[in-house]
Amino acid sequence: MTENNNLSSPLQAMSRRELRELVRSQMQALLEQGDFKGAKAILVPVQPPDIAEAIEGLPEAMQVIAFRLLSKDEATEVYEHLDSSVQQLLLEDFKRQEVLDIVDKMSPDDRARLFDELPATVVRRLGEQLSPSEWQATALLLGYEAGTAGRIMTPEYISLKESFTVSQTLERIRALAPVTEIVYYLYITDTARRLTGILSLRDLVTSQPDQTIGEIMTREVVSVNTSDDQEEVARLIQRYDFLAVPVVDREQRLVGIITVDDVIDILEEETTKDIYALGGVQSDGDNYFQTDLITVARRRVLWLLVLLLTNTVTGTIIKSQEGLLQQVVSLAAFIPLLVGTGGNVGAQSSTVVIRGLNTDEIRAMGPVQVVIREAMAGALLGGMLGAIATVWASFLQESVLVAITVGISLVAIAILASIAGSALPFIFRAFKLDPALMSAPFITTAVDVLGVVIYFNLARLILRL
User: Fold this and answer.
1) DSSP code, position 145
2) Which of 30, 175, 181, 197 could make an SS bond with 217 (beta carbons 3.0 to 4.6 A apart)?
3) At residue 8, does pLDDT exceed 70?
4) What is the pTM of this model?
């Protein structure tokens, strides 16, 4: 016991990244030497999430060996934190009974998430071997549509009746605590399992033993429906600082709860998906850096082809103005400056609007207000950048009219880019599409095309050509 405490003290002082790398490197060295007892000892003071990350960093052949060093209880908890690709690798290498022991002890929501990643034949085989109660709980979750509250909830919660006394409730908590997800929130239901109230553990332990639950519970309950989108659930928990939120069906019957740790996973998943979309990369939810290169190329090539075809339009427009460029060759020198700046301004506007839509920060403002605000910002940015560009252009060549053309064009392009960058995400959302699809590469290319058109038309007007 003393040895474990001595080990944990320096480990606690380290960052999680340093800890993971230290455990991984030492465990790999010991496994290569065949010192399994030493490798097992290293894992004693380490938390399950850190053990999982350390195992993921090992060579594939060592991952199975390292996992087998864990006790049965540790193995189940660590397994829930592993990446899905490592989970599947371990399933393939385990003996049948070892697999069943781990899967049967997993919480229903984690088990449902694992089954989502496995082939149907494997899921069916595992399901047949699970205990009836565990399979029923998992099948309930798998019956809901992916990405909804019903799919990510857990049916492991503590429910009470209003007639229970405080002392009776405490006895019930002691009995059910080992098999429930959390005990901080207690849910009160009627005879038809309809949710009627909620009680915090703090309110329970500070009440008199003979008081009934009906006297101390809170009847105004914030809940979500099984069909609600998981991202909306995450926002609700984040807004109210909940540790968990109850999930009800259409008849308002309590069917499960969603805990804050599940919400963290959802937020990470949704943020990753949006960031990939902003970069024009398709995402199926798996680890990008563990995906084979053929799949990576396939996901990225679609947007690149769209951008390639769109850029040919820009080239065609420039070629159509060959006569103008022959008369004023210096106009060509400023094309990259104008289209590049316009693309950057549009990308900034789209980024802030898409993020605002995802976090509900702009819910108090309508789309028109947001677009007008961004257009005004674009005008200010264009004015500042246009003045600088005009001075710079006048130094680069003799024609003041060309410098004025560049400056005015930059103002017009900045306003156009801001409007496009802020309006297009709203248009995509109106058509039930992901606003993140209106990504920076797409807006940049669209602004390039329109920016070149504006530039050449202003040049003809100002230079009278």
Assistant:
1) P
2) 197
3) no
4) 0.63
